[in-house]
Design goal:
Radius of gyration: 23 Å
Shape: globular
Number of helices: 12
Structural class: alpha+beta
Strand content: 5-15%
Number of strands: 9
Mean pLDDT: 75
Strand order of the largest sheet: 1-2-3
Helix content: 25-40%
Low-confidence stretches: 93-117, 123-130, 153-174, 270-276
């Protein structure tokens, strides 16, 4: 489950506790009032109702949400911002969705191997763990996947903490974030302050895997792209993307590409068409 979907569901779960309404429109209206009263932040009930359709009932395609809105909704749940929510939120029923794997390697209590023998890895089935395709294709078992996760993300819990520095970076691995690199998201250390990365946001596997800017507009046609890609228009410039969301370059909400937009702003340039 994406962090955005998780946030919207938790926000509506929270407003339902204090609301006497029993419809999405009623909850959205009460939530709009609460946000203005508690945070002095105005967002229409209509917009919140649209978020409910996209992320709670999933009766409509996921819509984009501006970073400011994500931050304010996180504040409503008493988090500093969306980054804080993404890093620290744990579902109350998370314990019921965990698989625990204990790797025992050696009985020698003083050996280096013993320091790794009591690693307990918790894989949360619902919101934190999604098996990439390359793992499935290579037939990796749960132990192999668990160990790979240890090396990649440091998501481990030691029942006996080893002395000294971490082994292979397992103990002191930093939390994951990502940044927009012109045409796609790339992973980065959350603590990296290098200004070259611009805005760093919480790591989202789906966004990094599927959200890309289409660099070759000339490959788009009405047949292969209308209704299947999204676009952003800003200062007369149009960019196309492979998934819905927000244009990272200007913060604008993306729209689904229509045949008109494909005809006018994509496809082969006029000169190329004439030459052919």
């Amino acid at each position: 489950m994406s962090k955005r979907k998780l946030l919207i569901r938790e926000v509506f779960k929270e407003i339902k506790k204090s609301s006497d309404k029993d419809t999405k429109y009623g909850w959205a209206g009460d939530l709009s009032d609460e946000l203005e009263k508690k945070l002095n932040f105005h967002i229409s009930a209509k917009t919140l109702s649209r978020y409910y359709d996209s992320f709670v009932t999933e009766t409509k395609e996921e819509t984009g949400i501006e970073t400011l809105v994500l931050n304010k909704l996180s504040e409503y749940l008493d988090y500093d911002d969306f980054t804080d929510f993404s890093r620290t939120f744990i579902k109350k029923d998370e314990e019921a969705n965990k698989t625990t794997v204990k790797i025992s390697v050696d009985q020698d209590e003083e050996s280096l191997v013993e320091k790794l023998s009591n690693i307990i890895i918790n894989i949360t089935n619902e919101q934190h763990f999604k098996m990439p395709n390359f793992m499935k294709k290579n037939g990796m078992g749960i132990v192999e996947i668990a160990f790979l996760l240890c090396l990649a993300s440091g998501s481990v819990m030691f029942s006996k903490k080893p002395k000294g520095a971490g082994f292979a970076g397992i103990l002191d691995s930093a939390p994951h974030c990502m940044y927009w690199d012109k045409s796609e998201y790339k992973p980065v250390d959350c603590e990296d302050k290098n200004p070259i990365y611009g805005q760093i946001i919480p790591f989202d596997y789906e966004m990094m895997e599927y959200f890309k800017r289409i660099e070759r507009k000339d490959t788009l046609t009405v047949e292969n792209a209308a209704g299947k890609v999204w676009y952003s228009k800003y200062n007369g410039e149009v960019e196309f993307f492979t998934a819905d969301g927000i244009d990272p370059n200007n913060g604008r909400e993306l729209r689904k590409a229509t045949p008109f937009m494909i005809d006018k702003y994509a496809g082969l340039p006029i000169d190329s068409t004439e030459e052919e």
